[in-house]
Amino acid sequence: MIGFIRGTLISKTPPQLLVDVQGVGYEVEAPMTTFYELPAIGQELKLFTHLVIRDDAHILFAFATEADRLMFRALIKVNGVGPKLALTILSGQSAEEFQRCIQDNDIQALVRLPGIGKKTAERLIIEMRDRLPTSTDETGARQTVAMSSVGNNPGQEAVSALCALGYKAQDASKMVQSIPQQDKSCEDIIRLALQGAARQ
After folding, report:
1. pLDDT band at 148 (very low <50, low <70, confident <90, very high)
2. Number of neighbours of residue 146 by Cβ within 10 angstroms
3. Given a cut of 80, is residue 1 above it in pLDDT?
4. Residues spanned by the domain of 13
5. Which residue among 77, 101, 102, 110 is least crowded, i.e. fewest CB within 10 A of its CB?
6. Between these two residues, 36 and 134, which has the higher pLDDT value?
């Protein structure tokens, strides 16, 4: 609903930020990994957002990178993990660090995070494993998880879009890599990737 906001940082009191967007003050909640990357008060910034609607409140969560927002969205799909706990997890670890914990079955690292017990850590590993790339190749992992916030790479945008359509990250990456990308838009790459998948 609200994909990102760009404006002037007015105040920062973890986990809350106030951002002035053309005269409208947006109160957002952000993980500490985002706070570490914030500019000084009065400076302009851009944040990727996710809106959570509850009976008693509408809460806008904000992230410095698309990777953190993708991880947040994956986390809140896990049984027993709500937005607040997902924010806590991303405050204690970056998206890449969390991915390593899942891939390495590192329960001990997860239980060090506030609010995460052994059972929750085990559930996170079981349920998140299929949502993360199984390859330990660093380049592949970074391409999937640490997507550029600049958004000027049509190939990366296509991978992200295919993941949003329900493809596993590793499969989406393979589909896009099989397409010659020179002079092609993100939409062209997605269309060709889907056509190729339909023929298989």
Report:
1. very low
2. 18
3. no
4. 4-63
5. 77
6. 36
Q: Which residue stretches of the chain are H helix? A: 32-35, 66-75, 83-92, 95-103, 107-111, 118-129, 138-145, 154-164, 169-177, 186-199
pLDDT bucket at 49, cuts 50 / 70 / 90: very high
Least confident of 52-61, 132-141, 189-198: 132-141
Summarised one tens digit per residue, pLDDT across range 2-27 is 899 999 999 998 889 999 999 999 99
- Which residues lie below 8 Å from residue 162, measured CB to CB, with a gap of 6+? 171, 172, 175, 176, 190, 193, 194
Chain CA centroid to CA 38, Å: 17
CA–CA gap between residue 8 and residue 25 (Å, rounded): 9
Residue with tokens 């998206």: 95
d(CA 179, CA 188): 10
Q: Are residues 46 and 58 in the same domain?
A: yes
**Residue 94 within any structural domain of the chain:** yes
- Tell me whether residue 96 is in a domain: yes
Rounded Cα distance, 123 and 131, in Å? 13
